[in-house]
Amino acid sequence: MSITKIRVGGVPEHFNLPIHLAIEQELFETRGISIEWITYKGGTGQMTQALADGEVDLCILLTEGIIKAIANGNPSKIISEYVTTPLIWGVHTGAENSLDNYNRIYDKTYAISRFGSGSHLMAIVDANSNGHTLQQEQFNVIRNLDGALDSLAKQTSDVFYWEKYTTKPWVDSGALRRIGEYKTPWPCFVVAATNDILEREPDNVIRTLRTIHDSCDRFMQDDEVIKLVSERYGQKIEDAERWYHSTAWAIHGWVPDKMIKSVIYHLKVAEILETDQEIPELIWKR
Predict the structure, then answer these.
(1) Residue-wise pLDDT tens digits, 162-194
(2) What is the fold of 4-86+186-269?
(3) Do residues 197 and 205 lie in contact, with contact meaning Cβ atoms separated by under 8 Å?
(4) Beta strand pairing call for 76-83 and 110-112
(5) Are 54 and 200 in contact (CB under 8 A)?
(6) Radius of gyration of the chain (CA)
(7) pLDDT tens for residues 240-252?
């Protein structure tokens, strides 16, 4: 059997463990696929750029980020949901910052990994849903979690949105304080692919997806992975357990049109997309 290499990108977080386990167990090879995993610490904004630049074939990234990117011309398509439950964003500040109330964040400086990232978009959506409008000068680009930790410690930023279980070790250590939470009103992660790979290797993209879905199915049926999550990602066992039992992964490639419409609605209300902006085809029809 000939082997086709597929480059897959994602953040270094516990959500992607089912894919890493499939790579380690050589499950992709059984379908003629070799996965080159590329880690993007900069998150969704960095990955949408990598897709646009052809540096990667598939990415696991935030739903709202890739919808915004494709709407604005990124040559990619959503090919499957990945995590079907909402993301719980922790709203953080630095240990020495006097900010102590989630309702007082809207005139502060926000650390974001980059413009168009989840940490950027969710801050805007959250503020807008509470009747506030954030200005561009309120955002401080810090590239990744390490940059945020440094900026919050130096108080060059006041507020930082990041997935609550990923940042929990720093909250536990006292380096960060979580002053609030925000839950996305849609499934949090999807799989996206470049138009180029979809045109050149559609069958191999489908084989890659099937392997991901199979691994996610096994992952959800094996409580033993809770200990693995705890060990690999520095989580307390009770946090890993709570996260595992509140998270669900997709086991098929169906992407609901209603979910897409809901995200577009929120992005337009938050003025992240233009109200009258024409939205191109977002989903791979196969």
Answers:
(1) 999 999 999 999 999 999 999 998 999 999 999
(2) D-Maltodextrin-Binding Protein; domain 2 (3.40.190)
(3) yes
(4) unpaired
(5) no
(6) 19
(7) 999 999 999 999 9
